[in-house]
Amino acid sequence: MPELQPNLTEVELLRGPLRLSVCPGLGGAITQLSIDGIDLLRPWDGTDSVRRTGCFVLAPFSNRVGDGAFEHDGQRYPLRSLSAEHPLPIHGVAWKRAWTITEQSPTSLCLTLIHRPEGGGVLDWPFAFELEHQIKLDDDDGGVALQLTLRNIGNRSMPAGLGWHPYFLRHDACWLRFDTSAVWRNDTRNLPSQKTPIPTEWDFSTEAPLQEPGLDNCFVGRTGPVTIHWPNEGVELTMHPSEALDHLVVFTPPAEMGFFAVEPVSHANNALCMDDPAANGIRTLDPGETMQVSCRFSIARA
């Protein structure tokens, strides 16, 4: 049978100068975020590729699983790649599934997703979970409040990680600031191989122009907010991830592509395959246990 095409209908939230759109059928992705008509996330190109949207959820793990399999509680679990563009399993399951709207208002949205490891779904992720994503345009600081809740609905423990994958626009100029304690260097497969101090050219602990640092790396030990400043547009976005999101995956493709990613996540890339997943951010959820993280985007006209 031919593969069913996703429902590409968008839902729009409005509050004052803020506009945010979501496509529940396309990975529950955020397809637009703008203030006064100025796009902050890369606007969706309208195709059925969630990787061309503005932001999607990372669950129940972030980034790559290096061996195409991982071990948990003494058992080895194979995973298949869900992306034709990546040979390794990447970004979890949630970005490849249609979500269901469970609550909606003009300024807020609640989306849910249930995964059960049945049939081929076992190779997507071998544990059952329920995921809830709350999105709200908030008056408190003129921004967006995001919250993820992951619940183990199976009868055995499962490893877990969460995060978001926003693609920010560069515009004509872009300045970036974030404070972390170390960074993972990658091997030839783009998997973390060595944790090192942050080199000067990758140091954004004080605000600096983004330029082209050539990053696709996971930074460790984030403290404080992440600030993105577009001086020519007169806009500043401050990202406040919750404490558990103490890793940042930073992706800076060539400037001509027009975007970059700063992803607040709970664990290191490939942490599922590391000698000590828990030490690198992986949680273990017992049956019925939940993991919750949040991230607030404070948006101001500078």
Task: Outline the secondary-structure elements.
Layout: E1 11-15, E2 18-23, E3 29-35, E4 38-39, E5 55-58, E6 69-72, E7 75-78, E8 100-105, E9 108-115, H1 121-124, E10 129-138, E11 143-152, E12 158-160, E13 163-169, E14 175-179, E15 182-186, E16 192-196, E17 208-209, E18 216-220, E19 223-230, E20 235-241, E21 247-251, E22 259-265, E23 283-285, E24 290-301
**Topology pattern, helix = H, strand = E:** EEEEEEEEEHEEEEEEEEEEEEEEE
CATH topology: Beta-galactosidase, Chain A, domain 5
Provide the CATH top-level class: Mainly Beta
Number of domains: 1
Low-confidence stretches: none
Instruction: Give the termini separation.
Output: 53 Å
Mean of pLDDT: 95
**Main sheet: strand order:** 8-9-10-11-24-20-19-14-17
The number of strands is: 24
**Largest sheet, described in full?**
9 strands, antiparallel
Strand proportion = over 45%
Quickly count the helices: 1
Can you name the CATH architecture?
Answer: Distorted Sandwich
Structural class: mainly beta
Molecular shape: globular
Give Rg in angstroms.
18 Å
